[in-house]
Write a structure and sequence with these properties.
Aspartate Aminotransferase, domain 2; 7-stranded mixed beta sheet; 13 helices
Length: 454
């Protein structure tokens, strides 16, 4: 264990601060050492760890540092990292209380904290999963089954064949994981009504068809590109009158509800029926850490529970009742540590700090000739140079610089540079360094190739 500590300390104190944000060619080529047949005999544990560190660490992406903006990947707050190390030595299975009392109690505690933090209905249930993709699947399963149950149909007994028809309504800007979850649930593309979105990716309220008690309505708290928020309040009020089920995809944006400054973005979110959110994004908990929240506890449990003569349920919380998994790593340990470390005030300040730095980043890019294509309402910035080919070349040079790392996206049929400010370790100095890399990349991309001039 001591050697692991030394290697980890090396990464924390030096590598992640000074290494290239994305691994270079030599580091990537070093991974070839792992491409070997499984040997017959056992290996020396110390040699295994040395190989992982010496050959694996240089080939990691510095997403826990301050200049990684490629995806909405948060860093790791110190208390959470240490808690994860401790939890890994425990190696707990969080399925049942009798398997892990500590996991059961911490899940119960964090469930109450989320209800308080997001101002959700008091009986709201939480399931702790790997990420918002699974959380969305769980929430939509509860919604589908609830709607069918209200129509007098037990999908758990009869299956989907012959079930009453239900429809899905979502905005054109919905995340791809939503479609994946719907497909798994047997709600194919012909069941889906796509509502036009405005220039920020928000669902057009006026174009949402009349809702009824056969409708799953899916809204966004944080568009994956622009960071925009749907008008959750207006549509949730309509849905409650009509008897529709509303699921809010809040993978990174639901955390706005924990901020005094940004809470207006999630107005009315407590009126929804289910929510999905990640802790490994905005909250900066370690990977992987997602949460499904459901207003109706019975709906979530009935959709996801399982039975077996060997299963020993208790009078305490049995976490497997609230997720699609039975066996689960006790990721709740580092989630609890993250929330306990920050507290309400710290979480609010973290969320607001990411927003302020996104604004700073966007204004600095405008000063060097970039156009910002979105309203920077949260942590996302979409930058363009007006011509897709020039933007693409600039992005390529940014990535090759390894000074910072961003991804690209299509926005209104134009290539944009997508910047996600998600790590608590991002400083204003990090942003200044990154803006300098943007400027240099823009200059390189703008140069005329002499060989192309006659």
């Amino acid at each position: 264990m001591l050697i692991v500590g030394f290697h980890s300390l090396d990464i924390i104190t030096t590598s992640k601060n000074n290494q290239d944000v994305f691994p270079g060619r030599k580091a990537l080529e070093g991974l070839n050492i792992f491409k070997e047949p499984l040997q017959e005999e056992s290996s020396n544990p110390y040699e295994i760890l040395d190989s992982l560190h010496n050959n694996g660490s240089p080939a990691t992406v510095a997403q826990t540092g301050g200049r990684y903006f490629g995806f909405v990947n948060g860093g790791i707050v110190p208390a959470a990292l240490a808690a994860k190390w401790l939890s890994d030595t425990w190696d707990q299975n969080a399925a049942l209380y009798v398997i892990s009392p500590i996991a059961s109690v911490l899940e119960e505690v964090c469930e109450k904290w989320f209800v308080d933090l997001f101002n959700l209905p008091q009986n709201t249930a939480a399931g702790f999963v790997g990420g918002s993709s699974t959380a969305t699947l769980c929430g939509l399963t509860a919604g589908r089954n609830h709607l069918l149950h209200q129509l007098g149909y037990d999908v758990g007994k009869k299956g989907l064949f012959g079930a009453p028809e239900i429809r899905v309504i979502l905005g054109e800007g919905a995340h791809s994981t939503i479609y994946k979850a719907l497909s798994i649930l047997g709600l194919g593309s012909e069941r889906i009504i796509k509502v036009p979105a405005d220039k920020q990716g928000r669902i057009s309220v006026d174009d949402v068809p009349e809702l009824d008690n056969r409708t799953l309505l899916i809204l966004q708290a944080g568009n994956v590109n622009s960071g925009s928020f749907d008008d959750i309040n207006t549509l949730c009020q309509r849905a409650r009158i009509a008897g529709s089920w509303v699921h809010v995809d809040g993978a990174f944006g639901l955390w706005a509800a924990a901020s005094e400054e940004l809470r207006h973005l999630t107005k009315g979110v407590e009126l929804a029926d289910s929510w999905s959110v990640d802790a490994h994004k905005t909250l900066n908990a370690p990977y992987d850490n997602g949460i499904v929240l459901c207003r109706n506890r019975d709906s979530l449990v009935q959709a996801l529970h399982m039975t077996g003569s060997y299963i020993i349920y208790s009078d305490h919380r049995d976490g497997m009742l609230y997720t699609s998994d039975m066996s689960r790593r006790a990721r709740i340990v580092e989630l609890w540590a993250t929330m306990k470390s920050l507290g309400k005030k710290g979480i609010s300040e973290l969320v607001e700090d990411l927003h302020h730095k996104a604004l700073y980043f966007s204004k600095a890019l405008e000063e060097i000739g970039f156009t910002i294509k979105n309203e920077v309402c949260f942590n996302q910035v979409l930058a363009s140079l007006g011509k897709s080919d020039l933007t693409e070349k600039t992005l390529k040079h940014i990535q090759e610089s390894k000074e910072c790392w961003c991804g690209g996206a299509k926005w209104e049929d134009e290539t944009v540079i997508r910047i996600s400010v998600s790590s608590y370790r991002t400083t204003y100095e990090d942003i200044d360094r990154s803006v300098k890399a943007f400027a240099e990349a823009k200059w390189k991309a703008s140069r005329i190739n002499p060989t192309s001039v006659s």
